[in-house]
Amino acid sequence: MMRSMYSGVAGLRTHQTKMDVIGNNIANVNTVGYKSMNVTFNELMYQTTQQASGPNAQTNRGGVNARQIGLGVKMGAINTNISQQGATQTTNNPFDIQITGDAFFIVNNGQENFFTRDGSFYVDAAGNLCMTSNGYLVQGWLPDPDDPNSILQTDVTKLQIMAPENLTYAPEATTLGYVSGIVDKNDPSVNSTSGKLLNLQIYDAAGYPYTAKLKVKATDDEGIFSLELSSINDSNNLPIDLAGLTFGALTSVNRTTELNLSTAYTWNADELKDNATGDTVCTVADIKAYLADATTALADPDIAANLQNLAEAYGYDSIEELDNLKVSYVANADTGAKQYVSVLDVLAGTDVSVTPAGGGAAADQNIRDILGLNQADLNLPITSDAVDFQGYTVQYDPTTGLFTGIDGISDTITLELSSLTTPPETTDGPSRFEDVVVDFSTSTMWNNSGTSTLNATNGDVEGLGSGRKRGLMIGISIDTSGMIYGTYDNGMTKLLGQIAVAEFANASGLQKEGDNLYSDTLNSGEFNGIGVDITANGGYMNTGVLEMSNVDLSQEFTEMITTQRGFQANSRIITVSDTLLEELVNLKR
Questions:
Q1: Which positions ≥6 away from 173 have C-beta within 8 Å?
Q2: What angle do CA 267, 268, 271 make, to 5 degrees?
Q3: Partner residues linked to 156 by β-bridges
Q4: How many domains is the chain partitioned into structurally?
């Protein structure tokens, strides 16, 4: 038998194998993460018919080369072009991820780890990040239990990014706030009886929202403003019970206020009448009862209602506000020493002690007589020149307009909400509130065309201590390092985990397992069970895109042509060898 025929057969077999590889490359031209392969050939073996001989000086003959006849070809290796990056395909699916670099995703089938460049993932019913094609679980690291904002790089585990505990973000009570902007001393609102209203949103520990309403009012002393807590309202805008809450201290400031009785009412002797109905809505007796014992008077529904009518008739929200307005009078004619009484004392015609000129004995006089008000006519305007309030004084430099302090001492006020032991939503137990410290240091008293821009914001200027309601997950994002973050409808973001990757000393040594998967081998280097951060060696991830096959069709078709020609030529060897054998057989004819 002729050796050439067997060489031709070997050539056919190896070219057929090469064609199989080319066909597989072309078939996977659109396979996600596929890496093309190529075949190299080796000489099969040689039959030596004469060994080589060296030069012989004795016989004066030169050396002769060995005489060898080749016996064909064999497949040398099938190499994977694993390091060449495939093309990028945009999918806009946030769970489709492309690796740039030499790393591999780590997935697990419940028994062992595999490696892949196929980044088409989805979240299953249990909240696990999985491969779309086979449901294998994507592996990574979870946040450090002691520091939820960092990753604990231990043995890789499944990434249950939508676990029940990740679907919500825990609420938190507000602890900080700040007031910024401009208070203009010429702003009508800060010079009004109601003041400039600041709404500070706060949360309790259960995430219930409340609004603390603060009032800023100008005083007669330039640069000094009073700050009062008007109310704290729940989410239904209903005021909560502030019993036990202390806001600042009882403070008196100079503030000139002219009280004008509403035209809807008229004093008739000691009775306040509603002009529309002619009904008596309050009496001097009611006022005197309040001055004698406020608690007892307000416990009487009729007297309390009448006193509320009185406050509203003068444009105030409560009788307490009216009582805080003070009127000064000269208590000693010689020294000019002043004393203060409540506006209610003026309305009630209270007797006060006055020392006459010349050092005579002090005598009681009706305060209305001292002020020059006709005792029979209470409808005239009453001027108050001081006010008592519970709260703080906010102070600014009259020259520069810069903030100088709260009560001349600190930069902050404190809402001592932890004293509210029973928030409205509970029946007993400790307070869900935390004390809220509000910083005024960034506010100023500058000219702003008569408009104040003061604004109260929960949290400090960096957003810390702002508190929050319970958050529901509204989105998931994955950054270039594989960090997975959940976003919530309360504005918060939570670190859910990080996708780990595997890198190998010889990635071409990985064994293909089908389904776009590889397993490690002794020649690739074994996976250590932990993985690496993709950014450690300059790699990164992109979301919304996939890495496609790196098959080059132009190269594959070129290889197909050369393979076809090689196969054709080897088939001719067999044909010609057969013809020669035929001639040999025909010699006997």
A1: 202, 203, 204, 205, 432, 433, 434, 467
A2: 75
A3: none
A4: 4
Structure tokens at 347: 């309305």
Closest Cα to residue 18, out of 71, 72, 79? 79
Residues 6+ apart with CB under 8 A from 360: none
Single-letter amino acid code for the residue at 162: M
Closest CA to 115 of 98, 100, 136, 95: 136
pLDDT in tens, 421-452: 766 665 566 788 999 999 999 999 999 999 99
The verdict on residue 313 lying in a domain is: yes
Q: Is 505 inside any structural domain? A: yes
Q: Does 60 reside within a domain?
A: no
Residues 270 and 367 in one domain: yes
DSSP 358-395: TS---EEEEHHHHHT--TT---S-EEEEEEEEEEEEEE
Around 445, how many Cα atoms within 13 Å sit in the side-chain half-sphere? 22
Q: What span, in angstroms and rounded, lies between the C-alpha atoms of 401 and 398?
A: 5
Tokens linked to 27: 């078939």
State pTM to two decimals: 0.74
User: Are residues 413 and 451 located together in one domain of the fold?
Assistant: yes
DSSP 248: S
Domain limits for position 371: 261-380
Q: Are strands 443-444 and 176-182 parallel, antiparallel or unpaired?
A: parallel
512 is a domain residue: yes
Residues in the chain predicted with pLDDT less than 70, given as ranges, are 1, 375-376, 422-429, 589
Backbone angles phi, psi at 319, to 5 degrees: -65, -30
Same domain, yes or no, for 580 and 493? no
